[in-house]
Every structure is written in C-alpha cells, then in structure tokens.
Design brief:
The structure is a homodimer.
Chain A: E1 2-6, H1 11-23, E2 27-31, H2 39-44, E3 52-54, E4 60-62, H3 64-74, E5 77-78, E6 84-85, H4 93-122, H5 136-159, H6 170-184, H7 194-204, H8 210-213
Parallel strand pairs in A: 1-2
Antiparallel strand pairs in A: 1-3, 3-4, 5-6
Chain lengths: ~230, ~230
C-alpha cells in the first residue's frame, strides 16, 4: 500500500493528488503541517517538505518534481522511441518540454510571487504555532501578482485546448492545484478572467478533482462556490 | 545551431552548461543579466529567467527543469522498458527519483536557503542598477545554511560514490553548479568538509567543468583557488 504525506492546502501536494487520481493510483493520505516538521517526518524526507510518496519497503519519493516524473515513468505504456505513452507528460520531447516549462512556472514562479505569500498571510496566521507578524505589503503584492498569473492562464487557455497544448497534462494539474488553493482562500476574481475560468471549470469537473473539493480545514472554511462545479 | 541564454554566476545556467558538456552538445552562449530583463528576452522566455536553450526554428526550452529533462529525453540511447540509457538520469524509475529529489534539493532548497541570499548580497550589490539596501542578517543566515548544506553533501559523499548513487548524475551537476557559485564568491570553507571537497574535486576535474572555471566577471574576480583543480 502506498501513502502520500501531504498538507490539504499545499499546492504541490494537491498537484500530486490530482496526478494520482488521473493515473488511478490508490493511496492513503497522511496529513503533515508544513510549519511543524517532526523528527519522524525528517526521517521520511530530510528536506522537511511535503509531498512525499511512501511505497513498499523503504521506497520514498520526495517532492512534487520527483513524484510527478516517477508516476509518468511507471505509468502509461512503453511507446515508440523509448517514450511512455498515455502519461501526464504527453507527446514528443519538445511537447514535454513545454509541459515542464509550465509546471516550473506554477511550482516555482507562481508559488514564489503569489501563492506562498497569500497562503502564509491568510492561513498560517490562524494556527497559533505558525503565526508571524502579518505583513500587509506582502499580501498586497501577492494579490497583484495573482492577477498577472491569471492573465497568463487566460492567454494560454485562449490559444490552446489545454495549457501546454492539445492534451491535458501535468501542467494543467499543477496550475489548477495552485489556483484551487487561492480559490479556497477566496482570492480568485474568476469573473474578470472568463477564459481562465472556463479552463478551470473543465479541470475542476474531472473525477480526480473531487477529493480536493471535499477538503475542509477546521480553522477556515472555503467560500460556497469552492466546491461548486457551476461557480 | 543551438544557443544557451545564461548568466555566468546563475547556478541553474551552470548546471545546464555542465549537462551540455557531458552530452557533448555544442552551443553558443548568450549572456543575460537576471536583474535586467529586456523586452526581447521576454519574447524568448515570458517567465523572464535563464537558462533558456534556443534551438532550430522556433524551439525554446525554458528553465533548468525543462532543459535537463529534454537533454535526457533526446540524448543517450533507447533501452529496455521504454527507458533511455547513458543519460544524466541513470537507472530505474526509483534511482531516477533519487536523482530528482536531490536536483530539487539544490535547485529549490539550497537556492532559497543559501545560494540566492549570498549571491544577491555579495554580487548584485556591485552592479549599480541591481543594488539594494544590503541586509547583513540575510547574508548571515545564508552562510549558516550553507554550512548545513555542506554537511549534507559530506554525508551523501561519505555513503555513496556519487550524490545520488553509484553513477554520476544531474544531481551531482546541480549540486556542483550551486557550490561553484559559492566558491567563486569565496564562501565555501572546504577544509571543514573534506568529503564534500573530495567529491567536488572529482566533479571539478571533468572536462565539462572547464568552461565554468574560465568565467570571470569584470566587477568581481574569483579567489585564486577557484580554478585550481588541487584546491
């Protein structure tokens, strides 16, 4: 049996929960709090962060990068030219590079410029042991950057079927994971970005998304539209 | 002909220059300054960062993640089970996951906790258009974290032939790229970490490393030992 160490509002963990759902992998979830890293968890991942996929015997796959590629390496079926087909990194090397460019965009750029500041200021403040002095400038900047990222998603959704091209890929899941955290925190002005909204509605209606829509933190409930497929 | 947009002391760019050297890919280098992103460069990579590998016609591979995987996808030779052999992500899926865990360690954790603070405080200050108010607390913290990361490299080098296992991989190149930037800035107390030093000396003596040892910024020269293989 496989276990995924995660935190419900960690976008990296969410991207992997979505990928696991798409590949139809059954896992048990083990919740960790990113600001309270236990000794036991450091044994699992010395880097101290989620997600971690724990497999049979001593196997530990640490971090969204390693897990997303591992799932692609071991799922789908061997195809032509040493490539695996039916994975979340579809197509030829050039197409896969475009998927990875966008995964990097969300897992690195979006996270640093928008996601992390908003999450820390809006959520972590609600946990006494994680609380820091709030920084209104940080959340203002995060919100401003979020709008720029939403424009970019709209631009991509306008020009393509899915964010990286003709097929759904891990780029869609990574982007949707980050935006779903912002949506839980009621930070996404969807009505201003109709193309991003239409794309998000498509990802949100996939069966792999359902478990995320059921997440509820005791310290903060999501807005009513969060779990609504017709938001 | 291929072009690599890079900045000489960008660790992400360096990791790709090393990988290109290992795969024996000839590229032309085009230097960019990370703090001065031109409109022309934003056309190349809307994310605004280096490295970017520009190929024939419209092909642009953006970011160290996409480039490192693209090079592996298109180099080596097709092997058993849909796997490519003789790449910088060697072995089975589990072994490759370990390579990627460590790449993530350096490209994300090391960069955030040590590399970026030290680079900005020590180098960027020397460019009038990039200068900010120096923050002595930031560089102190970066140096403290650098020691922790050096201990981890020593630990890995003690237990394994190469950082991720029996074979040299992109994990070694990513780690050496980040440490080589710190070394240029004379920030690495090698004598306190003999196992890390022995491993670094092995990576440093590879032909792929030679171009990096020749880098010289006009605003700041490296220490004498920087290019010395018997440092």
């Amino acid at each position: 049996m496989w276990t995924l160490y995660h935190f419900p509002l960690c976008a990296f963990s969410r991207s992997i929960r979505l990928a696991l759902g798409e590949y139809a992998w059954e896992v048990t979830l083990d919740e960790q709090r990113p600001w309270q890293v236990s000794r036991d968890f450091l044994e699992v991942n010395p880097a101290g962060y989620v997600p971690v996929l724990k497999g049979p015997s001593e196997l530990r796959i640490c971090g969204a990068y390693a897990i997303s590629e591992y799932l692609a390496d071991t799922s789908g079926r061997p195809g032509r030219g040493g490539r695996r087909e039916n994975t979340l990194f579809p197509g030829k090397a050039e197409a896969r590079a475009e998927v990875r460019r966008l995964v990097d965009w969300f897992h690195r750029k979006f996270d640093e410029e928008a996601g992390r500041c908003i999450l820390e200021e809006k959520l972590y403040q609600r946990y006494p042991e994680a609380r820091r002095t709030p920084d209104p400038e940080l959340i203002r900047l995060g919100r401003e950057n979020l709008r720029y990222h939403l424009s970019y998603v709209s631009y991509l959704a306008h020009h393509r079927d899915w964010l990286a091209g003709e097929r759904m890929s891990f780029a869609d899941l990574a982007a949707a994971a980050h935006l779903s955290v912002m949506d839980y925190l009621e930070e996404v002005p969807w009505e201003k970005y109709p193309e991003a909204k239409e794309w998000y509605a498509r990802v949100k209606s996939r069966p792999s998304f359902r478990p995320l829509l059921g997440d509820r933190l005791t310290v903060l409930a999501p807005p009513a539209h969060y779990a609504d497929l017709d938001f």
